[in-house]
């Protein structure tokens, strides 16, 4: 009888130990799952890195013949004239201000046209490479980032403000560049109908406080599933869908810049199709 009680007690202790062990294992597993979930939600997306040299060369070195082959596409949106209290100038040159964000697929599309257009007036350095958010429309659209990039020109200045990354933390995209009070004021005042399609939308472009353009000039879906190298390689291919969209948009941006910098350089601004676009921009 005593031996039976001893065996029963031993069995009960073993069951308790087993039960406690199972609970501990389950608690560890649950903790690991929570860590993984939290890590995933706080690190979704990727920070921008320097864009590959071959991609930059293709986007910034588009031959004049390719721009000319596309010419003026009258169906593309044109900037709206505004009457700001003063011109937007930096270092004595008319300023082109871009405000967008890495996560934004419409910004992703527009940057290709911006880079190609502005490269007709000056030179970019340290262009970043990034992609739009994976959980937005047109996910993972490959593109440049202006965060940390530089630009030099004899004719214009350029300021690129990327407000947020494509990295999610606590339910929102993390902050990136901090706009000045003037930049915030311009965005608040002019990024509204009838000047832009939607209130507060990005991307937003201000051309020397004389013209503004909101949104992407073409459908970002054109770039879906394409690598940066593929997009860059298609820009000068004027029979490709990305090439037609990017260069058509770049020509509109080029003409707008010519309108704010006294049509310099003449080798670009005096082209017949650029003059045609200028005349269409009221």
Fill in the keyword field for this structure.
282 residues; globular; six-stranded mixed β-sheet; three-stranded antiparallel β-sheet; alpha+beta; 2 domains
Describe the structure.
The protein contains 9 helices and 13 strands. By secondary structure, it is of the alpha+beta class. It has helices spanning 2-42, 53-60, 64-70, 105-118, 181-190, 228-235, 241-260, 266-269, 272-280, and strands at residues 49-50, 80-81, 89-90, 93-100, 122-125, 128-131, 142-145, 150-153, 157-162, 164-169, 172-175, 204-207, 211-214. The strands form 4 sheets. Strands 2, 3, 4, 9, 12 and 13 form a 6-stranded mixed sheet that branches. The chain has a 3-stranded antiparallel sheet with strand order 1-6-7. The protein has a two-stranded antiparallel sheet with strand order 5-8. Helices cover 43% and strands 19% of the residues. The protein folds into 2 domains: 1-42; 49-280, no CATH class. The N and C termini lie far apart (105 Å). It is globular, with a radius of gyration of 27 Å. The longest helix is centred in the first third of the chain and has 41 residues, at 2-42. Residues 1-11 and 13-44 have low confidence and may be disordered.
């Amino acid at each position: 009888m005593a031996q039976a009680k001893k065996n029963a007690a031993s069995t009960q202790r073993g069951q308790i130990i087993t039960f406690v062990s199972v609970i501990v294992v389950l608690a560890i597993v649950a903790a690991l799952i929570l860590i993984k979930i939290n890590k995933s939600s706080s690190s979704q997306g990727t920070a921008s890195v320097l864009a590959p040299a071959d991609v930059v060369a293709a986007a910034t070195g588009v031959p004049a013949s390719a721009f000319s082959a596309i010419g003026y596409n009258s169906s593309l949106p044109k900037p709206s004239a505004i009457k700001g209290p003063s011109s937007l100038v930096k270092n004595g040159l008319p300023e082109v201000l871009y405000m967008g964000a890495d996560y934004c697929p419409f910004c992703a599309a527009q940057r290709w046209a911006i880079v190609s257009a502005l490269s007709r007036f000056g030179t970019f350095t340290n262009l970043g490479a990034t992609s739009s958010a994976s959980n937005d429309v047109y996910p993972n659209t490959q593109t440049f980032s202006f965060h940390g990039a530089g630009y030099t020109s004899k004719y214009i200045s350029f300021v690129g403000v990327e407000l947020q990354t494509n990295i999610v933390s606590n339910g929102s995209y993390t902050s990136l560049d901090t706009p000045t009070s003037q930049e915030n004021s311009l965005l608040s005042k002019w990024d509204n109908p009838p000047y832009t399609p939607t209130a507060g939308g990005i991307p937003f472009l201000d051309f020397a406080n004389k013209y503004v353009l909101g949104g992407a000039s073409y459908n970002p879906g054109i770039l879906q599933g394409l690598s940066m190298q593929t997009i860059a390689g298609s820009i000068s291919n004027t029979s490709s869908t990305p090439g037609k969209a990017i260069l058509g948009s770049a020509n509109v941006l080029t003409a707008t810049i010519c309108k704010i910098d006294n049509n310099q350089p003449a080798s670009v601004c005096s082209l017949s199709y650029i003059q045609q676009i200028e005349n269409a921009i009221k």
